[in-house]
Amino acid sequence: MAIAPPPLSSSVARCLRNLPRGTRHGIRRFTQYIYPTTIHQTTILPSHLRISTGPLLLRQFSTTPPRHHGHITPPKPGEELYVTFIDKDEKEHKIAVSENDNLLDIAQDNDLEMEGACGGSCACSTCHVIVTDEGYFEKMPEPSDDENDMLDLAFGLTETSRLGCQVHMKKELDGLKVRLPSMTRNLQASDFNK
Predict the structure, then answer these.
(1) Contact (CB, 8 A) for 181 and 86
(2) Are 178 and 158 in contact (CB under 8 A)?
(3) Taking the CB of residue 105, how many other CB atoms lie within 10 A of it?
């Protein structure tokens, strides 16, 4: 005796209605494999996948929206925050950014010379920046222990040094000015093989 497949949620049903007619059956069969409920194996799985004829508990899964490192969203009109980078040649680059963008992503998106070798995971010091105004430095949250450990490896460390990947723009940091150091230190395993 076959057990009827479980009812679909309203959002899945809505998606199925919008699909071309030929693909609906295949999608419906697929949702039965992943739908979080108890179903009888003989009604769903092909014979070569059956282990027993008892009930099969299927695992529920979920996904989270992907975080796109290095992709910043342009600020909405009227919500711009400004940050100025001073490069190695003393040239200033004033950039309009959105709230919560970090300095590493902003610099890389605007083709400024900031490496970010670890991809923004606070595991190197190549996104080291120097905050030029102590007032802005005081408005930033305290650096974590991980950030302080990485800053110890930074070239040209100052009292107002931070890692760009750990500084997220907020309204109170509007107008922030940071200097890029003249050099960065990127320690690699190959540096120690000599």
Answers:
(1) no
(2) no
(3) 23
Residue written as token pair 């905050």: 131
The domain 81-186 is placed in CATH, from the list 3.40.50.150, 3.10.20.30, 2.30.110.10, 3.40.190.10, at 3.10.20.30
Q: What is the pTM of this model?
A: 0.60
Name 177's Cβ contacts closer than 8 Å, sequence gap at least 6: 83, 84, 86, 92, 131, 132, 133, 136
The single residue listed with the structure tokens 């105004």 is 133
Burial readout 130-162 (b: 16 or more C-beta within 10 A, e: otherwise): bbeeeebbeebeebeeebeebbeebeeeeebbb
Residue-wise pLDDT for 33-62, tens only, equals: 444 444 444 445 455 555 555 554 555 666
Which residue type, as a one-letter code, is found at position 148?
Answer: N
Using DSSP's 3-state secondary structure scheme, residue 84 falls into strand
Q: Cα-flanking dihedrals φ and ψ of residue 109, to 5°?
A: -65, -25
